[in-house]
Amino acid sequence: MALLVCCLFALIVKNIVCSGDNELYKYVNQTDPATEQLVEFAKEHPRSLENLPDDVAQEISARDPDYYNRDLYNAIENQNYPAWELEMDVLTFENIKNINYNKFDVTRLWKKDTYIRMKIPIGILTTSAGRPVEIRESITLNSDGFSNPYHIDLLTHADAERTPERIVHAKGTAAIGYFIVTHDVSKYTKADVFNGIGKKTPVVGRFSTIAQNKGGTDLERATKALAAKFFTSEGNLDLLMLNLPIFLHKDPLVFTHAAHAIKRNPKTNLYDLTARWDFVTRVADTFHTFMWLFSDFGIPNGFTKMDIFPIHTYEINNKHGDRYFVRFNFRTEQGLENLPDDVAQDISVRDPDYFTRDLYDAIENKNYPAWELEMDILTLEEIKHLDYNPFDVIRLWKRGTYHTVKVGRLIFNKNPDNVFRVAELITFNPGNLVPGIPGPIDTLFRSRRSSYREAQVYRLGVNHNREDVNVPLHWNVYDRDGVPPVRDNMKDIPNYYPNSFHGPTPYVDPSRPKERLSVLQANVVDLEPINYFFNHVLDCDQRQRLINNTIPSLIPISPKLRRRVVRLFTLTDPAMGKKLTEGLERALKMPQTPPPPVLKVWH
């Protein structure tokens, strides 16, 4: 049977046994002419089979007699391409002798369990150069494997099929969906993606966890992320978001050191709590994020049940050139849920891919995850009277100083057919913005837009934006050549600017603000936002759980480093420092965890 499947497309039609809608065909296998079979083709829709009851059909018919035509047309227009999978129900001539019904009768079905259903292969196996692979080349035992072109082709590709891991957010998965505008925000921005109620924009998203390598656990107490690429009519808009509303640091120079501190120790190759706490106590800007991580917000119950934030304060403008400053917030419609430590550890043992599986299953089961986009808004005049820096990425905006408007919904309704092609080849850059969104003005953003591009050039080459998953709806460039893909390489369009031969030219945007703010950022440690989080965002029980979650991470580190951590807590809030000190003293008096029981095998 395996041989038959491999050779299925080499079969020759000998004759049509009977005619009609359900035709039976007699096939002969070229590699084994003695094997003859009867085949009936079955076309099955990969999506669910749906039918209408009489009353519903009559109601639709009264409203829309062209319902079928419209449904087909709209599905194709909206890129929800209808598809059917072709299968074969197969009877051998030996089987036919033992069947007690007329298998040639087109008015009846074949009985179950009397035939074999086979999926038709997509085609003949080839090498990467397109040469057909003969069946004897599919094994190398007892042959000269190094004269086998298929063997060499397969082996050399496998040797080079891995791309470099991302330095952070290496473990990730992807989903495909769209953004739909639900509210009129033309007063604030002229960006086409956010204008026109009902407008849909295709989106591809990559969900990830910050410190884990590929193959690591989803359930680490660490920042989670969603990077979303909006394929707008004005170019790609990339929003790189975290499940926490603040960033780890504001000085871009800190990034490399922070990444090294939270990743594996270069000597032990283990995640290192000493390195993490040493870094936090030396770079106290990072303390705010760690407080969020050790709070109830630290481990979401999957990617679908977390809010997500693009972190920076974005400048936006309307068609008149009026400027506003906003923070985008994507609020989960699945309900905000987080996991306590013990539950997360239990799940991690059983299913380290819990977040990935939950997202995939939700989409496959048509429980499409969605987020509502809101904008917190400040005017230029309001910014002048604030008593805090609204461009500081490591602090929250104070309540009562801004107003919030709704924009639309982000919905993911399709899983990728191939995760590598999407999750690993998609690239993001916070500098990918569109007209109407000039973007952030802080120092961290200016550094990120450069470093993200450099990282993708290293991973995938200078033409990474020409990978299928990254290509914008429209693009005209003077970039040429380089490591593939180059697509059409702009054909014979001139490769220099300006030129006299109809090459692409820039446009004039009269609504673009003529000035941009310049922000000076203080190089001092400000613990007030952390105190505010501890005392005003968290309630009493949540504050105690933050302390309880922190203590286990302090047990393995040195007493000297513990004292530095306690001092940082105390400087932030004396009550918080006292609770941590008391909890640590109790924990250190408890007996150490005994070694696990083992099974001894005697030789």
From TrEMBL:
GO terms for biological process: hydrogen peroxide catabolic process; response to hydrogen peroxide. This is Catalase core domain-containing protein. Keywords: Heme, Iron, Metal-binding, Oxidoreductase, Peroxidase, Signal. Residues 126-505 form the Catalase core domain. GO terms for cellular component: cytoplasm. Belongs to the catalase family. Residues 1-18 form the signal peptide.
